[in-house]
Structures are given as C-alpha cells and as structure tokens.
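call fold(seq) -> tokens
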Amino acid sequence: MSEPIFIFVIFALVLSAVIKGSLGMGFSTICLAILANVIELKTEISIVVLPSLLSNAIVMIEAGNLRISLRLFFTLILAAVPGMAIGLQLLRQADNTLSVSILAIVLIIYGCWGWANHKFRIDDKLIPKLNPVVGFTTGIVNGATGSQIFPVMPYLLSLNISKDVLVQTINLSFTVNSLIMLGFLYRMNTLDTDSVITYSLGVIPVAIGVWLGGKIRKKIPETRFKRIVMILVATLGLLLLVN
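ret:
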C-alpha cells in the first residue's frame, strides 16, 4: 500500500469513526463508500472489519440494554448467519464493479430514507415474524457489499423502542456480522495473519475518532447532525454509482 493511499485510509477510518461516535452507527458503510474510490471492495472489507468491531464494542458499552436487545431481536441476529454465507459467496463470484454498484444503491436508498425522516411505524406484534426476514436479508446485503445497515436500520427505526435499545441492537447486529465476516474472510483466503496484524493498526485512529464523535454528539443536536450524515451517505452513493 503506497503512502498516499495509506494516509487516505487513515482519513477514512477517522472520519467514519467520528460519525459512528456521534450517531452510534454508520462506520462500515461510510468508510467503505470513501475507500471504494481507491481500493477494491474485497480489500476494503478486510481493512474495515477489525476497526468496525472496536467501534461497535465502544458504543455497546455506552448504550447498555444488552439483555433487552437479545430478548427482542435474537432471531434477527441469528438469521443473519445464513444470509451472510450467501452474500459472501456473491462477493466472491461477482466482479468489483457489480459489488460497488450494489453498495452505491444501498447508500442512496438509506441516505434518502434517513433524510426524509419517515414516520412509518411497524406494529410490535409483527416483530417475531419480521425479525428472521430482516436479519436474513441484512446478512445477504452485508456479505455482498460490506454494508451492515440495510434493511436492519430502517426496520429498527420503525419500531417503538427506545434510542438506547436501538443503538445497542444495531451495534450487536454489527458485531455478530463482523465476526462472521472475519471467519468467512479467513476461509476465503482473503484475510491472513499478516493482514490481520496490519489492519489491526486501524483500531487506534478509530478509537480516537469514536471518542471525538462522542464529544461532538453532546454539542450538536442529533436530528440536525443525522440529516447532515444522511446527505453525505446519499451523496457518496451517487458518486460511486456515477464512477
């Protein structure tokens, strides 16, 4: 990896971590979108997976409500496992252009949905039936593109749950998916021991970025900041699609 690309990777990790610390989500998706302009998607996912685990752990500790999240959404998280297997096979077989195009479409849909601040609500009675479907679909999208937020994020935002439970659940989902991703990357020979050692250095700037994001979260109204991030996400998706 050349020095300019290395500096660009560090910049992407820190920026994504700041947003993660501010909103409790979005690290992998935003980081992948930035890096996709200079690095192949399969390599990106290998770079992001370990720092992503760290950012998830930090936010999960702050959010609490782990038991409630497991009780309500255990089947959602479990259903992501077979979905990830399918998605990773798609990633392995598809060319980089197709994978990046899928990621771009996911970013545009999510960015527009979040910016519109849609007020749609799902009845709590439907949660047991929808959890496996949403988890399985999220696993496919995550495995194929590296993005962990769709459709699980819009789904959780449509439920009558507290902010802390939402943040804990989404980061629990991110963590489990990242661990599965890590295992599959080893099996696919996309990630080896030397790569793990190299990419683990990314946890340092990510830890700093998440800490800075937490400071920002206390000073900027969450709704305003979230709208800015959603505009950024959709814009990144459009740029990727054009490219």
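The longest helix spans residues 66-93.
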